[in-house]
Amino acid sequence: MRFLAFLAIAGLGQAIADTNDTSSFTDHNDADQQIILDGDHSVSKDRPNIIFILVDDQDLQMDSLNYTPRTMHHIADQGATYRNHFVTTALCCPSRVSLWTGKQAHNTNVTEIYPPYGGYPKFVAEGHNDNWLPLWLQDGGYDTYYTGKLFNAHTVDNYHSPFATGFNASDFVLDPYTYQYLRPVYQRNHDSPRSYEGQHTVDVLAEKTLGFLDDALASDTDRPFFLAVAPVAPHSNLEMGDENDTTTFRFSAPIPATRHQHLFPDAIVPRTPHFNPDHPSGVSWIRTLPRQNESSIAYNDEFYRNRLRALQAVDELVEDIVQRLEDADALQNTYLFYTSDNGYHIGQHRLHPGKECGFEEDICVPMFVRGPGISPGMEVTSVTTHIDLAPTIFRIAGLPLKEEFDGLAIPLTETDIQQDELSRHEHVNVEYWGKAGFEGVFGQAPDGGPTTFYNNTYKALRLISPDFNLYYSVWCSHEHQLYDLTRDPYQLHNLYPAPNTIPTTDLNATSYIGPYPISHIISRLDALLLVLKSCQGSTCIYPWKELHPAGDVHSLRDALEGRFDHFYADQVKVQFGWCELGYLLEAEGVQYPLVYGGGNGDGLGWSEWV
Fold first, then answer.
1. Does residue 92 have an active-site annotation?
2. Among the listed residues 329, 146, 281, 113, the one whose alpha carbon sits nearest the alpha carbon of residue 226
3. Residues 6+ apart with CB under 8 A from 260
4. 92, 364, 476, 540: which is the annotated catalytic residue?
5. Domain boundaries in the chain?
6. Which reaction does this enzyme catalyse, per its entry (predicted)?
7. pLDDT of residue 597
8. Alpha-carbon distances of 231 from 201, 338, 366, 538, rounded to whole Å
9. How far apart, in Å, are the Cα atoms of 268 and each of 61, 202, 207, 297, 372?
10. Considering 56, 149, 311, 470, which has the largest number of Cβ atoms within 10 A of its Cβ?
């Protein structure tokens, strides 16, 4: 089972010390320095502070934001809402590593939640502990703080092997207690872990957050601060039958604070067309799922209600943070980010509670930013991703961007938004390796653990533009998906021409999307995905240039010009050598596309990209 290995890595042999939360330490104590922006503009010492709130598994598509009025009032309504914001890997640890490094998961090589392909040990082994956002910010003149969940497999046994670097002060919740709402274990700075059994994990986090915020606001270093706050809500709760038996566990509904347990008694998962549909959808293991029965639906509705209830403590914490900033007269010089590490599904496509899929529920997440220069109530429709957030924080901090970044800073001001709509890329590179699983009673396997599905490895492309709204994926099983979300927003009708697709007559579908033959669209999407699946740096931002070095193609619409038909018909295709549980280059299939014009830009032929 996917979590058994995680618990084995976590280990349960170390006693938890009941120490006081008093000491602090500094990894970097560099003197404040003058930062140069764009090579010639010095940045003043009163640079803005940054607070980043990263929740765990919050959905966007199931209306959870309707139940967090404080977050909406204090951040979304007072700042910018990013309507098309995506994660690039719909799983906790890979998504978080990508966020804090600005790199796609195929470049971090952290693709799972536990070793050998993921988790904190993999993060360390790949060298990221010495090269990631908090260290960069400290070197750039910021004080840095972090509290809450960092990564999976960051445990009571390995938290000091080595300590996470880059923080003036930190207080991490540790495995195997990370997802135990009423039995959390936190580890402050270089102290031993401390158990908070009987206290709600988000309430413990709130106290630690406000303590760090007070420290940062009271600092006399003249350095701005970065504070990351990572509650585990509304992630599911981990139940362990016996600490000495790591095979006895399950994921159940999250546990709200006592004061919130009575809320929302009538809330149910939105009954959208793809909720427990009459006909199967998707490919691979998803297509084999049976319809849920009444008992399962009722259980999952209560699971959903407890997710909403668990979010209430987070919603209160958001208000407390804003109030503390306001009391200190620091709110106007502070950026506040709010987002989730991935989305979530319950019932859509017959799926039991979980994530890890490429459907909109799992990859499109809440994203709000308020701060200096951001007009209240702005809405941004440009495509943005978690890969773009490290570059965005660099821009706010006045730091020169790193060539290794795979993303592009998101627009923050009205001027930025107007320019961005004209020039920003239209694609999201989605990728996943390994297994998928369900949470909750009806998602259990016969042995009592979570149901696990293998061969959940896929490369996918989400593309949004004035002309197209598409999702395309290639699976390690050689199955494909193509959805036109303009006509099929719930991704029920796979347009890829294959024998395992369901009829699409109710869409009045033809072999065209708009004026373009589907076969032509697929050939372009596949070529674009082939570039993105192994991209690095600027290639991830401007992938069409790798296919068309002359620079005359910038979008799918450009690539659909008839003069390119033969080029794309002859293009090599995305494929896997075999299904693997992690990123192994030898299993990834072909890496390089053909280049139009042989790389010379003359349009007279094409050659292999080398």
1. yes
2. 146
3. 309, 310, 312, 313
4. 92
5. 2-30+49-423
6. an aryl sulfate + H2O = a phenol + sulfate + H(+)
7. 87
8. 8, 12, 15, 33
9. 13, 24, 32, 9, 38
10. 149
